[in-house]
Structure to design on (483 residues):
């Protein structure tokens, strides 16, 4: 897709991404290595100014009625849906995922805007039964203030909408720092928010090539009262440590090591179909990707064969090509990491059934790969792969499956396949994960709480619980009412 053929909206995005005179950095297409364009390279000083602007807008926005905030959010949602094709093209160009997946991401993200636009009108408090005559006790929920949202490259649109929607619904203002690999999707969404009529400075954007210094400026700033971050556990710990200095409220959606457990009574075709979604969506570059396939001994070979047949039907290529089902990895470093994990597993006795080695030539491609015969003590079993590699491990019984699944510091998503209702309850309750998908390959929904336990994070996104992450609970006691 050449620049000359870009839709007008994408041209508008580039015009807004790099104002005249601004320092800039390049944004590249991972499928081709070509430079798409330039984006403003902002600094810590710019981040502090963005916070000041958002703080200035907070009073008026927080005092808007819920009905008014809902209307503004719905106008934003409608513009996003109207531009879904251009937004998907932009996302694919800068991130690489297949175009249909990109479109699905945009619409999924937009569902959070409608959900929280509606929830804004239901941010209820409480009247508490009094503890003494002449007293009344009540609780109100108030917006926490300026929110810093630091978002990842693997879902550069959906993660912005999932964080910004509840924040502005609650009456907060937001400063977004998108990933340096994928800033264009963020520019596009903020541009549409402006066109939708959201007040100036309710949503601010800081694009940069040096994320550490900008993130530190945001976490150090006393006027930022809440941090919402999606990314690696290592970075999340650093940000949480920085936030401690000003005792900010934090939501952290961090790394995962998701088990995909297939019991011998599972519907193997259902499990194999779900595995394709849980593992190979976005080339395995999701925090909830199935990372360890734990398959009961009696069905291990049958499941491996079904999975291998489905993987053979995948098409690796540029996400803009209609036939592509698996796009590139985000950069060369990602390719090197995945290939190193596969080589180490093979050296330790695992069998590479398909794929296994990086694709020579242009772009950062790694083929869909299946490993069998490995053991849970391999490095690849204890590392978030973030690539299209399905590593299969055998287990004997239910107790062993749960023990191996829980033998990790992570606890984000997990997957269980069985037809035994008793086992569904036992295993779901025993798994130390924030989310359990039973007989399906996805867990994401705007109506459900998304988040992890242990070192996979703090807090929840989506659902009615997600709005409480952006409010303070205030108790008001009134006395002297019997005078």
């Amino acid at each position: 897709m050449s620049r000359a053929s870009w839709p007008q909206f994408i041209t508008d995005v580039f015009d807004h991404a790099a104002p005249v005179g601004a320092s800039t950095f390049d944004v590249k297409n991972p499928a081709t290595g070509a430079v798409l364009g330039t984006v403003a390279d902002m600094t810590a000083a710019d981040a502090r100014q963005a916070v000041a602007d958002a703080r200035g807008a907070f009073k008026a926005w927080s005092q808007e009625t819920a009905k008014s905030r809902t209307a503004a959010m719905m106008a934003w949602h409608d513009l996003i849906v109207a531009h879904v094709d251009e937004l998907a093209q932009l996302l694919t160009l800068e991130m690489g995922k297949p175009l249909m997946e990109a479109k699905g991401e945009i619409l999924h993200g937009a569902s959070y805007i409608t959900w929280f636009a509606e929830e804004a009108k239901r941010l209820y408090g409480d009247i508490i039964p009094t503890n003494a005559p002449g007293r009344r006790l009540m609780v109100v929920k108030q917006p926490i203030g300026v929110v810093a949202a630091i978002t990842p490259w693997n879902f550069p649109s959906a993660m912005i909408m999932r964080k910004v929607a509840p924040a502005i619904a609650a009456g907060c203002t937001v400063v977004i720092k998108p990933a340096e690999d994928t800033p264009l999707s963020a520019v596009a969404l903020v541009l549409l928010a402006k066109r939708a009529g959201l007040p100036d400075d309710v949503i601010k954007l800081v694009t940069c090539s040096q994320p550490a210094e900008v993130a530190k400026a945001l976490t150090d700033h006393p006027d930022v009262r809440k941090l919402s971050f999606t990314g690696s556990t290592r970075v999340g710990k650093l940000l949480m440590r920085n936030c401690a200095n000003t005792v900010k409220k934090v939501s952290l959606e961090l790394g995962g090591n998701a088990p995909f457990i297939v019991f011998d009574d599972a519907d193997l075709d259902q499990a194999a179909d779900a595995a394709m979604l849980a593992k190979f969506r976005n080339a395995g570059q999701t925090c909830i990707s199935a990372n360890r396939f734990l398959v009961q001994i009696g069905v291990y070979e049958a499941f491996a064969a079904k999975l291998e047949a489905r993987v053979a039907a995948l098409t690796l290529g540029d996400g803009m090509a209609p036939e592509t089902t698996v796009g590139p990895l985000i950069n060369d470093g990602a390719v090197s990491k995945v290939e190193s994990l596969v080589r180490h597993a093979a050296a330790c006795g695992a069998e590479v059934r398909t794929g296994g080695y990086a694709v020579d030539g242009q772009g950062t491609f790694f083929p869909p790969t299946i490993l069998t015969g490995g053991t849970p003590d391999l490095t690849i079993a204890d590392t978030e792969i973030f690539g299209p590699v399905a590593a299969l491990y055998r287990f004997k019984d239910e107790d062993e499956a749960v023990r191996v699944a829980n033998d990790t510091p992570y606890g984000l998503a997990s997957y269980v396949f069985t037809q035994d209702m008793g086992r569904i309850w036992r295993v779901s309750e025993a798994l130390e994960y924030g989310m359990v998908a039973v007989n399906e390959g996805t867990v994401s929904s705007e109506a459900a709480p998304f988040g992890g336990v242990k070192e996979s994070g703090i807090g929840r996104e989506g659902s009615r619980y997600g709005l409480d992450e952006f409010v303070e609970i205030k108790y008001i006691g009134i006395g002297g009412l019997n005078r």
Q: What stands out?
A: The mean pLDDT is 96. The domain at 3-254+456-475 is CATH 3.40.605.10 (Aldehyde Dehydrogenase; Chain A, domain 1). The first strand starts at residue 24 and ends at 28. The CA atoms of residues 216 and 440 lie 39 Å apart.
